[in-house]
User: Which sequence fits this backbone?
């Protein structure tokens, strides 16, 4: 029996918590004797789901600012909230964003950091810790090596293994016609969907530009661009306001949903316009449910994810993306691309095959 | 040869105020009044203090006019009102105006009871009217409008005159090629490359990221490795880093420049201008920039009506790049002299005088063709 500790930045519906959830759910099936502690900086909507997987402790209240090391009282309160953690065989940080927990909750012992983002700053405590580094994609690995080399140029080139991110098998319970009817969208519509937080990195503004351009080049296709989620973030409300002021008629925004997979399954195309995304789990989800994914090349892991099945254009060619989306108005083309991408994801990026690689690293480190 | 007749113009203003549009109005009414073929008076509706506008008449001075005040004091208010009205109409008859221009559309009451044949023109400004709380807007049935763009906020009128009150002669002198080259050198921008300039805040609404992507499109679609200069008065470190990261992502990191000195010479030191705003922005300085011979490409928000102001579909980066590519081929010096001819204040005054001469029966329903 092994006891693993998993550190998260939050229990929201962003990539790292979802990844951790998929990992633990799978490992509990494959290794039923393994026990998990989950320690999160903040709570969120996944809290109840994650409680089913192990003991969960949350250090900070949802909107509590991150205390500084010198905020003795706040640090003490966070440690008290987490409580006495007891020993574990190894600790896994899912995302560098969870690193503050190392000093906030005085966590030590064998450590694995699974980097799943690019161009994020690393906490100095993490850089100084004797962690084993793994990266969620080849792109991420290159970024990790670059950062570690810059932080410690005197050291040899760090060893960073690629342990690809993955998803659990998506759950699709409602039909396309039900979902679209719920949204008030005609079933004959050509639905182009995106989903994510509403920040500049995820680029809801570029999604709006794509919608505008599509309306100009293919006004007769009856396309509807739908963005799911992000309503609490900085940029999305601005984009919504501008879209409303300018009368962008083929664009809709709907709030975050519990099961984004079935919404994506109801779409004809999933358009991922992120300016930067290391290895977007939402694209894995889209491919897994058979919805063809169109994305930028050169700004993240989607080309690596889809390999020969990748379709898109180099960043920042929004016009090129729109042309690719327009080609997918042909149902046969959608089927071909969707099947190729689905096959790719099912082969490599489901938790059934991929989760054990993470455990293998934890076991090595624990020895 | 028949000598064109002199014309008479009254400009009605609520009260002097510190808006840029009011300063412009004062400058060009002085110029109009200085013409030999024009009699021009400015009438303020209300008393004001602390502002000097020589030669102006105050309509509401009739409220303080001693004979009328005396009549009111002895209970002859109706007689007083009639006397004031006759006096006002006397002023009008003496001037016999051909054209009356109502600033912000206020003041039609001055023509109550006047039977003369006059063209009524509304002047519409981007800045909201000041000091008009006690004025009511009249029926707003204007024969013509004067403004910085062709659409009138009060619906279509018979004739739209573009306000062109820029001292383009001065601008030409200030933007000689040597001055522009010196500005580029000061900014650290190469002098031998095409340069696109834009300005605004670093905020998302003003679109500096769109500016960067248009720079990419100029290269990717048109083979033009133009440099881009974004002028922004102040910035936060993280915003500047974000934009530099965006430029690097787009592969134009070496060609993207940024400076906090949003001076006029810096705005015009390039070869074309892109204002990539996602929402309306103050276009007041755009015609100054055009006067220097530059084309300005925008997304059609608050756009001014001039052939050198090119409006492309909203947020269409490809079209913006295509228009910039075209703008970069223009002969700058030829464009400067054309802009001088087109945008100089005298061109507008000639149009107003011609309008006044034509009289209400001679109004042309089609707005004049813009030419380059």
Assistant:
């Amino acid at each position: 029996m092994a006891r693993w500790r998993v550190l998260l930045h939050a229990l929201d519906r962003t990539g790292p918590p979802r990844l951790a959830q998929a990992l633990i759910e799978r490992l509990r099936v494959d290794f039923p004797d393994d026990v998990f502690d989950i320690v999160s900086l903040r709570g969120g909507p996944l809290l109840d789901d994650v409680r089913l997987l192990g003991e969960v402790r949350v250090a900070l209240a949802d909107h509590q600012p991150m205390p500084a090391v010198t905020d003795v009282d706040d640090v003490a309160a966070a440690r008290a909230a987490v409580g006495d953690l007891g020993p574990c065989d190894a600790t896994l940080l899912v995302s560098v964003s969870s690193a503050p927990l190392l000093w906030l909750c005085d966590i030590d012992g064998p450590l694995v950091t699974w980097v799943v983002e690019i161009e994020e700053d690393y906490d100095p405590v993490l850089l100084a810790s004797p962690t084993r580094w793994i990266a969620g994609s080849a792109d991420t690995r290159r970024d990790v090596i670059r950062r570690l080399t810059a932080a410690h140029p005197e050291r040899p080139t760090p060893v960073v293994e690629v342990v690809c991110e993955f998803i659990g098998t998506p759950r699709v319970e409602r039909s396309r016609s039900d979902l679209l009817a719920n949204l008030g969208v005609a079933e004959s519509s050509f639905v182009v969907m995106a989903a994510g937080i509403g920040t500049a990195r995820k680029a809801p503004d570029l999604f709006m530009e794509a919608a505008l351009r599509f309306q100009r080049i293919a006004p007769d296709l009856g396309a509807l661009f739908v963005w799911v989620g992000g309503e609490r973030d900085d940029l999305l409300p601005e984009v919504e306001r501008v879209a409303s002021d300018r009368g962008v008629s083929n664009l809709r925004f709907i709030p975050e949903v519990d099961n984004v997979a079935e919404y994506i399954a109801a779409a004809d195309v999933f358009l991922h316009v992120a300016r930067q995304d290391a290895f977007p789990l939402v694209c894995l989800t889209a491919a897994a449910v058979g919805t063809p994914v169109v994305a930028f090349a050169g700004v993240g892991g989607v080309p690596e994810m889809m390999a020969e099945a990748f379709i898109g254009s180099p960043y920042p060619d929004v016009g090129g993306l729109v042309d690719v989306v327009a080609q997918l108005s042909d149902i046969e083309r959608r089927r071909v691309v969707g099947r190729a991408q689905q096959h790719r994801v099912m082969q490599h990026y489901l938790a059934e095959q991929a989760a054990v690689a993470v455990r293998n690293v934890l076991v090595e480190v624990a020895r | 040869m028949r000598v064109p007749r002199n014309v008479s113009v009254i400009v009605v203003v609520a009260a002097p105020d510190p808006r840029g549009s009011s300063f412009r109005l004062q400058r060009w009414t002085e110029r109009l009044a200085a013409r030999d073929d024009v009699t021009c008076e400015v009438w303020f509706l209300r008393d004001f203090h602390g502002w000097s506008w020589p030669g102006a008449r105050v309509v509401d001075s009739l409220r303080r006019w001693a004979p009328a005040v005396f009549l009111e004091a002895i209970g002859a208010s109706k007689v007083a009102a009639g006397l004031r009205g006759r006096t006002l109409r006397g002023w009008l008859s003496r001037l016999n105006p051909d054209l009356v221009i109502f600033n912000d559309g206020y003041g039609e009451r001055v023509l109550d009871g006047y039977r003369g044949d006059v063209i009524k023109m509304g002047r519409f400004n981007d800045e909201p009217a000041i000091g008009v709380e006690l004025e009511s807007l009249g029926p707003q049935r204007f024969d013509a409008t004067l403004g910085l763009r062709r659409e009138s906020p009060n619906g279509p009128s018979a004739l739209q005159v573009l306000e062109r009150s820029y001292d383009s002669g001065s601008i030409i002198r200030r933007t000689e090629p040597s001055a522009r080259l010196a500005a580029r050198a000061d900014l650290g921008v190469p002098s031998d490359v095409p340069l696109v300039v834009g300005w605004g805040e670093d905020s998302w609404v003003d679109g500096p990221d769109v500016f960067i992507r248009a720079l990419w499109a100029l290269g990717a679609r048109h083979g033009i490795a133009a440099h881009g200069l974004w002028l922004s008065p102040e910035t936060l470190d993280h915003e500047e880093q974000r934009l530099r990261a965006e430029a690097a992502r787009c592969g134009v990191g070496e060609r993207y420049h940024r400076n906090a000195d949003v001076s006029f010479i810096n705005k015009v030191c390039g070869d074309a201008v892109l204002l990539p705003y996602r929402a309306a922005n103050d276009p007041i300085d755009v015609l100054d920039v055009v006067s220097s011979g530059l084309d300005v490409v925008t997304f059609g928000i608050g756009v001014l009506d001039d052939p050198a102001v090119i409006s492309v579909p909203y947020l269409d980066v490809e079209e913006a790049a295509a228009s910039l590519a075209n703008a970069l081929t223009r002969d700058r010096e030829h464009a400067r002299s054309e802009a001088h001819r087109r945008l100089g204040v005298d061109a507008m005054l000639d149009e107003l005088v011609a309008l006044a001469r034509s009289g209400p029966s001679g109004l042309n329903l089609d707005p004049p063709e813009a030419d380059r």
